[in-house]
Structure formats: structure tokens, C-alpha cells
């Protein structure tokens, strides 16, 4: 986020709707306003070029495009991003195995249709380095719990997260406001602050896992609160998320009873994850138009 403007512009990829490389102020919030509170850098830490087929790149640019790296300005960045992404991926596969064990108590799934197999063969995983710009006093939304990032569920399968790192002018420090950070809502509707260490990885369930597991597993609603108070001015937050999700070509066998995005899922057929994500994008796009 602190690279010169021209360097960041070179790292932008409008064709993928800014889903590769640098993205700032391009994503729209629920209110329809651009999200200027955070800057992101997206890349697939497992594959630099998921496919060379032009028709696929045109159809699913946000998944099938190629990584963009600041190889001249920050040569160590690519190495670190891939190492962290792959670590979260490997541990995530172990977690997926246990998710399958849990779900198998309640429903029958073929082994090759389990979460672990689906994630192992996917070419669609996406790492996102997030940088929340310094909190400002008197932000219009400064008092709400979701002041840095609103309540949402991630739409993929599993999201792995590192703990947020707070800095001021780039120097690491503990956050003066202990209430700042990530919050989740539990199955019993409790709001819980997520606390974990710098050597830990936290995983959240995404919507696709909820749907495919017949709601045995539930997507984790979460938001990020900015620090408040005078002492917190100038505090920035950085973290890394790995969105583990099925391949664009993966046929999703939706169970008969579906709780979320019901209206989008045809009752008789299996969509691919690529088709399904496109429908979701269209849905949110449509909502924003009305
Ligand atoms: O900043 C965080 O800890 C969470 C980020 C997040 O929810 C997302 O990128 O979807
Ligand atoms: Fe999220």
C-alpha cells in the first residue's frame, strides 16, 4: 500500500474486476459506495497461470487470469506470499478432511465429492493481503462494530486467516483499543471477538461449504472493527486471507434442501462453481442497481 502510485497502477488488473494484483476503492460496499477503507493485493499462491485457454480466461477472468507480481520493486514479496498461502492451504486441507468426517455422520457423500478432494484438485484458490488504512477520528461509521469491514460471509469453501497486525507509520505496535479487530457471530447468535496468536491460523466456513454440507457446517458471519479513541488515530491493520474454493469446473451437487441463495440454485441440475459464482456476482450487481 505504500508503494508509489504509478507502481500500484501497474499492478492493477481491471479485466479481472481487480481480482488479481492491487485493488483499492474498486469494490462496492452494501451501501453502493466504493470501499476506500482497505487496499488489497490478490494472487493465487498455488498457481501463477491456472490456465492458458483464452475462452476460459474470458469467461472467468477473476479465477483464470494470471498473477501479477511486483518483481522489480519488491522481489521478496512473491516468495513470502506463496509460502504463507501454501502453508495455509496445506493446513486447510487437513481441516477439510475433518470437516468431511464430521459431515459424513449426517449425510452420504462420495469420497471424491468431499471438501478435501474438491479443494485439493481446485485451481481457484485466492490469497488476499489486506491493508486497512489508518482509522480517522470522526469517521461516519466510526461507532459501529463493523467500521472497517461490514458483516458478511465469504462465498467460497474455507477461509484461512492470519491474526491482524497493527502498525502506526509502518511500525508494529499493540492496538491501543483492545476492542478493535475481527468479530464473528456464532450459531447461537453470540458476537465473539476472535483472538488468536501470530503463529496461529484461523479458519472460517464459507457459504459453499454450508450449501454442500446440507447446513451441517454453517458459514461464519464476520466483520472487522476499527480502533476508536484519540490514541488510535493513525493505526493501520494488515492481515492475510486465503480463500479456498472449488475449481471453476467443479460440478456442485447441491442437496435438496438449501438454506442460502436458494433462489439461484436450480432444483434439478448441478452448476459448476464458476457458473454459480457468476450468478452470485450478477445477483449482487443487480441489487446494487435497484
Ligand atoms: O481482515 C480480516 O481479518 C478479515 C477479512 C475478510 O473478512 C475478507 O477479506 O473477507
Ligand atoms: Fe470475509
Describe this structure in words.
The model has no long low-confidence stretch (mean pLDDT 90). This protein has helices at residues 5-10, 54-59, 61-64, 75-104, 115-121, 207-212, 273-289; strands spanning 21-24, 38-43, 126-132, 149-152, 158-161, 165-168, 171-172, 181-185, 191-193, 202-205, 222-225, 235-244, 251-252, 271-272. It is of the alpha+beta class and 290 residues long. Helix content is 26%, strand content 21%. It folds into two domains: 35-163 and 177-226 and 233-245, Jelly Rolls, CATH 2.60.120; 260-290. β6 and β7 (171-172) form a beta hairpin. It contains seven helices and 14 strands. Fe (ii) ion binds at residues 152, 154, 222.
Amino acid at each position: 500500500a505504500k508503494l508509489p502510485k504509478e507502481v500500484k497502477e501497474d499492478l492493477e488488473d481491471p479485466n479481472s474486476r481487480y481480482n488479481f494484483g492491487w485493488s483499492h476503492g474498486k469494490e462496492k460496499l452494501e451501501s453502493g459506495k466504493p470501499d476506500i477503507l482497505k487496499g488489497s493485493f490478490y494472487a493465487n499462491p498455488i498457481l501463477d497461470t491456472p490456465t492458458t485457454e483464452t475462452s476460459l480466461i474470458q469467461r472467468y477472468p477473476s479465477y483464470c487470469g494470471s498473477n501479477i507480481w511486483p518483481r522489480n520493486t519488491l522481489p521478496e514479496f512473491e516468495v513470502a506470499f506463496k509460502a504463507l498461502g501454501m502453508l495455509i492451504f496445506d493446513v486447510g486441507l487437513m481441516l477439510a478432511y475433518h470437516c468431511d468426517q464430521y459431515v459424513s455422520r449426517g449425510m452420504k457423500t462420495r469420497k471424491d465429492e468431499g471438501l478435501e478432494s474438491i479443494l485439493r484438485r481446485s485451481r481457484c484458490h485466492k490469497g488476499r493481503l489486506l491493508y486497512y488504512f489508518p482509522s480517522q477520528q470522526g469517521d461516519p461509521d466510526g461507532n459501529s462494530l463493523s467500521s472497517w469491514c461490514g458483516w458478511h460471509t465469504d462465498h467460497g469453501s474455507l477461509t484461512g486467516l492470519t491474526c491482524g497486525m497493527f502498525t502506526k507509520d509502518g511500525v508494529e505496535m499493540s492496538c491501543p483499543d483492545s476492542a478493535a479487530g475481527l468479530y464473528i457471530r456464532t450459531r447461537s447468535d453470540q458476537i465473539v471477538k476472535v483472538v488468536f496468536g501470530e503463529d496461529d491460523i484461523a479458519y472460517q466456513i464459507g457459504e459453499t461449504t454450508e450449501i454442500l454440507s446440507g447446513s451441517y457446517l454453517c458459514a461464519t458471519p464476520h466483520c472487522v472493527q476499527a480502533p476508536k479513541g484519540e490514541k488510535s488515530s493513525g493505526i493501520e491493520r494488515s492481515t492475510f486471507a486465503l480463500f479456498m474454493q472449488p475449481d471453476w469446473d467443479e460440478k456442485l451437487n447441491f442437496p435438496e434442501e438449501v438454506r442460502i441463495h436458494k433462489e439461484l440454485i436450480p432444483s434439478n441440475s448441478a452448476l459448476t462453481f464458476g457458473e454459480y459464482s457468476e450468478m452470485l456476482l450478477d445477483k449482487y450487481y443487480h441489487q446494487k442497481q435497484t
